[in-house]
């Protein structure tokens, strides 16, 4: 059975995967934003298109978090309408190897090695009978992409093959990384903008802690990706703790909306103030569920909850009507087993799990990449 697992090709993992939503690298940020808001996908792939279809390549991916961080620049907050007219290429990280094209015949082992070398997404052609040699130039060959989550999910179906390693604790396996992105809860959220951008690239999150490194919550790129671009205004004007309350529970509390509006006016960021006001008037918060009492309890609660977070609903619904990811962190303990942490991350649709002690002090983080390293090493004994 081990030989059977090792013989799998990426085409086996691509079954049922949807075709990528794609945009040309010459598209504007506003066009990318429109695609993201009307899609159930967190990311849209960006392509360097050519008249010769064979030369078209995926050169990156963009999500709303990229737009939010870009709008956080002071000059863009002053005039977001001008900023959104810029080409989407300005959002792409200048890091080579994040997106790699591979053939469907690529082996599982080769795919894992590429991910461990830094690839975030593997772009794979989809085999389909609908595309033949007579297709027009307007009909592009379909692609899907595979992520770390796809690989981990696939490996879980054969987790018994990795015994006894799968039952070892994560501290025994030495895969807890102490190098975490953190910010203190009373610090301005704007101080975390660089960390958020880095977390997006590393597929992790920013831990919100107190002065004793007690884990209070997180500012997650996945949570922000469920919001809209006007969160940039909150990110520039609120504390980290208040930002967690702002992006939590499906919509910002009215009290925090007033704070953001007042600070935008104070800083003469009239362009974002107008954009922000229009967004709020279209359902930016729910007056029925975002009372001052709820704001107080949400922003002051110092706790970590491992409970499931609400699923993502299409952005075509109003901000106040849809459920979004909460700012509560997904946690485990140093003695948690590898398989338990893998299952926990998959269940919550995150690429990492925070590691804490019994007193909720932050120890570190375990990522899918860390887990794949252990699995990859175990392959050597299975071959």
Automatic annotation (TrEMBL):
<dbReference type="InterPro" id="IPR050511">
    <property type="entry name" value="AMPK_gamma/SDS23_families"/>
</dbReference>
<keyword id="KW-0129">CBS domain</keyword>
<dbReference type="InterPro" id="IPR046342">
    <property type="entry name" value="CBS_dom_sf"/>
</dbReference>
<dbReference type="InterPro" id="IPR000644">
    <property type="entry name" value="CBS_dom"/>
</dbReference>
<protein>
    <recommendedName>
        <fullName>CBS domain-containing protein</fullName>
    </recommendedName>
</protein>
<keyword id="KW-0677">Repeat</keyword>
<dbReference type="GO" id="GO:0005737">
    <property type="term" value="C:cytoplasm"/>
</dbReference>
<dbReference type="Pfam" id="PF00571">
    <property type="entry name" value="CBS"/>
</dbReference>
<feature type="domain" description="CBS">
    <location>
        <begin position="323"/>
        <end position="381"/>
    </location>
</feature>
<dbReference type="GO" id="GO:0005634">
    <property type="term" value="C:nucleus"/>
</dbReference>
